[in-house]
Design a protein that fits this description.
The complex is a heterodimer of chains A (252) and B (434). In chain A, 38% of the residues lie in helices and 28% in strands. Chain A has nine helices and twelve strands. Chain A has helices at 40-48, 72-77, 95-109, 117-130, 136-139, 148-162, 178-190, 231-239, 242-251; strands spanning 2-11, 14-24, 29-33, 54-62, 65-66, 80-83, 90-94, 141-142, 166-170, 197-202, 215-220, 223-228. The longest helix of chain A has 15 residues, at 95-109. In chain A, 46% of the residues are buried. Chain B has 434 residues and is of the alpha/beta class. Chain B is built from ten helices and 21 strands. Chain B has helices at 3-13, 22-37, 53-56, 72-76, 114-120, 122-128, 138-146, 380-387, 393-409, 415-429; strands at residues 61-62, 86-91, 94-95, 110-113, 150-155, 165-171, 178-180, 183-188, 193-202, 209-218, 223-231, 237-246, 251-258, 263-272, 278-287, 292-301, 307-316, 321-330, 338-347, 353-362, 368-376. In chain B, strands 1, 4, 5, 7, 8, 10, 12, 14, 16, 18 and 20 form an eleven-stranded mixed beta sheet that branches. In chain B, a hairpin with a 2-residue loop joins strand 2 and strand 3. The longest helix of chain B has 17 residues, at 393-409. The chains are: A alpha/beta (252), B alpha/beta (434). The A-B interface holds A 48-52, 71-73, 75-77, 81-82, 84, 87-88, 90-93, 98, 101-102, 104-106, 108-109, 114, 141, 158, 162 and B 379-382, 384-393, 395-396, 399-400, 402-407, 410, 433-434.
């Protein structure tokens, strides 16, 4: 589904990603872990098409297409979804309008009929349950004045509505209390299908107690230092990142 | 021959009512004042960014009375779907009773046209008219000299009018090349309340000139909510001045919405004469093509413990030019003044421009006054956020532009008006779904 080969990317003159290779197949859950500043969020944003990052080398293929040639909105229409670490507040646009606009764009791209506000409300009633949100949240402006937990739940709500093939959760656990974390994680699990895949970007192992990964990759200084199964996350939890960094330093 | 001597000739040619009362005197003083000051130039500090020469270089005669062709359907386009509001319709500056819906008031409020007020409440006019809005301002002087019709509202003490009063000023093809000088006087006595909407709109284009003056007396403990919607034709010229005075414990809320006219200037002034007043001056303007829109607000804190709040936003496209000048003056006696002013402009094109000048003059030492001005483009992070949800570039920009505007419309407390203006902007900025 997603094949990243030797990807390098810059912000301004600074190289952040220094040669990432990663393959994600349908049905898989990948966790990308690493210390702060390792490039995890950059990788997530580059896959989603953030214009602030310049890809300087390597390739990304998604469903056989050159992902790097696609605009951000085309990537989203093709089934890529990024749950933001810091969801953006858009005062003045209601959540309902925003969600329906996004839903219709994605439907259009799939060759499906657009839905009107009434039909959309039916869709929403079901989706809201997944993240334990009320209809009242739909009338509020997008993320404006939402608590940290509400913002993250709103991200998962959008994910539920758009039903992506590849979902990337960027530090979705940061700033969440245990209840919100559970709601968010259960939401993600409910949305899991054999034909979609999830990349969970996180600093802590905590979220992975709820969303169990098939693969864990440790990213540091712009490179993947080690890949393994879910037991790697537990090892990191126990030993921290330093031992890996030291091992990497010694072998470099 | 200069343009303003033409106005003297026009003034001599016009009739100014029976010579039995104060009105001719007031008008003569005004035309003399106008001749003395002349039209402002960009050398005047208050007009630095706005040249009125397109107005000054022509002579706009008062509109000649013509057979009324405006229909109730025409009027309905501008009434925000509110059949129960009191509606006074003026066409080309003249009151049209057949188009107006002037329901019997269930309270003792007096809502009169100018000519009715001359008969029914001459003492009120004599006492108040022209005392708030001074004729040192050329356009106010011109309005006073040429005012022919308008609305006078008197809210007796303690009277609360729940139903808004809507004054609709329509210009049609007959107005082309001519001027209208409507006048509004609101006197809200002690503890009274009313809501007023003034809409300026056009049926068809034409380079006409609207020069409006509103005087608003907000008495002790009274509250006036005053909305102005300026949707003149794209070729029109519009100058409007609203001057309020507030007595102790009073509330005055003003909202100015402006999308019309090739050249417009809107002044909203309030003088806080008594303690513990609240004033809110909010507004939104959206300009495109070569439009020029200028807003000036002035809050004069004369008494202590008053609060003033201002939020103005502008959206500029094409080669349009916006100007915002927000003055706050705090007298030495006005301790405990709490003033806050925000001005934001969104530039959608490379050719658009905005000049913004907050102006705080504070002569008291125990005050809290802040101002903030930003001029910017659409937020890249918000654009990316929308794109990452599949919403394409143009539509994402449109949505964010609408959102920028809708945020300030939230400040409108008159729900039907808010909904109508939101719809107007939605239609303007958001392309229909394909």
């Amino acid at each position: 589904m997603l094949k990243i080969e030797n990807l390098t990317a810059n912000v301004g003159d600074k190289q952040i990603l220094k040669g990432i290779s990663l393959t994600v197949n349908p049905g898989e859950v990948h966790a990308i872990m690493g210390p702060n500043g390792s490039g995890k969020s950059t990788l997530a944003q580059v896959i989603a098409g953030h214009p602030g990052y310049e890809v300087t080398g390597g390739s990304v293929t998604y469903d056989g297409q050159d992902l790097l040639e696609m605009d951000a909105e085309v990537r989203a229409q093709a089934g890529i979804f990024l749950a933001f670490q810091y969801p953006v507040e858009i005062p003045g646009v209601s959540n309902a309008y925003f969600l329906r606009a996004a839903y219709n764009e994605v439907r259009k791209a799939r060759g499906e009929e657009e839905v009107d506000p009434m039909e959309f409300l039916d869709v929403m009633t079901e989706k809201l349950k997944i993240v334990e949100m009320t209809e009242e949240m739909l009338q509020r402006s997008v993320n404006a004045g939402f608590s940290g937990g509400e913002k993250k739940r709103n991200e998962i709500l959008q994910m539920a509505v758009l039903a992506p093939k590849l979902a990337i959760l960027d530090e979705t656990d940061s700033g969440l209390d245990i209840d919100a974390l559970r709601i968010v994680a259960e939401g993600v699990n409910k949305l899991k299908r054999p034909d979609n895949a999830t990349i969970v970007v996180t600093h802590y192992q905590r979220l992975l107690n709820y969303i169990v990964p098939d693969y864990v990759h440790v990213l540091a200084q712009g490179r993947i230092l080690r890949s393994g199964g879910k037991e790697l996350a537990l090892e990191l939890e126990e030993r921290g990142y330093d031992w890996l960094l030291e091992t990497a330093g010694a072998s470099a | 021959m200069t343009a303003h001597s033409n106005y003297r000739e026009l003034f001599e040619a016009a009739s100014h009512g029976a010579n039995r009362d104060f009105l001719p005197k007031l008008k003569i003083a005004a035309i003399e004042q106008f001749e003395a000051v002349g039209f402002p130039t960009t050398r005047d500090e208050d007009w630095h960014f706005t040249s009125v020469s397109p107005i000054a270089e022509r002579t706009f005669r008062p509109v000649k009375p013509a057979t009324l062709t405006v229909t109730a359907e025409d009027v309905a386009r501008f009434t925000y779907g509110q059949a129960d509001w009191h509606l006074l319709v003026f066409v080309n500056g003249r009151y049209e009773p057949t188009l107006s819906r002037f329901a019997e008031l269930d309270v003792d409020a007096q809502v009169m046209t100018f000519s009715e007020a001359l008969k029914e409440a001459p003492e009120l006019l004599a006492e108040r008219l022209g005392t708030l809005a001074p004729s040192q301002h050329a356009f106010t002087a011109l309005n006073t000299a040429f005012m022919a019709d308008g609305v006078v509202i008197r809210m007796p003490a303690g009277v609360v009018l729940d139903t808004p009063i809507h004054i609709l000023y329509l210009a049609d093809a007959h107005a082309t090349g001519a001027s209208q000088h409507p006048r509004t006087l609101i006197v809200a006595e002690r503890q009274s309340q009313c809501t007023l909407v003034e809409t300026f709109a056009a049926l068809g284009g034409g380079a006409y000139f609207t020069n409006h003056v509103a005087e608003v007396v907000v008495g002790t403990g009274a509250r006036v909510d005053h909305y102005k919607v300026q949707r003149e034709s794209g070729d029109a010229f519009h100058v409007g001045t609203t001057q309020a005075t507030q007595d102790r414990d009073s509330i005055y809320h003003s909202f100015s919405f402006a999308t019309g006219a090739q050249l417009s200037r809107t002044n909203v002034y309030s003088r806080l004469l008594g303690e513990n007043c609240e004033v809110r001056l909010n507004g939104l303007y959206a300009l495109e093509e070569a439009q020029h829109g200028d807003h000036q607000t002035f809050v004069e804190h004369i008494a202590p413990s008053c609060s003033s709040r201002e939020v103005y936003k502008g959206i500029l496209d094409g080669t349009s030019h916006g100007v915002f000048n927000g003055k706050v003056f705090v007298h030495p006696e006005a301790q405990k003044t709490d003033g806050k002013q925000t001005n934001k402009a969104l530039l959608l094109s490379d050719g658009s421009r905005v000049d913004t000048k907050p102006q705080l003059e504070i002569f008291a030492d125990d005050v809290k006054c802040t101002h903030g001005a930003t001029v910017g483009r659409l937020d890249d992070m918000a654009l990316f956020y929308l794109k990452s949800r599949g919403i394409g570039g143009d539509r994402a920009k449109a949505l964010l532009t609408y959102a920028f505007a809708a945020e300030v419309l939230e400040l409108i407390e008159l729900e039907p008006l808010k909904v109508a203006l939101e719809a107007l902007l939605f239609e303007r900025f958001i392309p229909p779904e394909a």
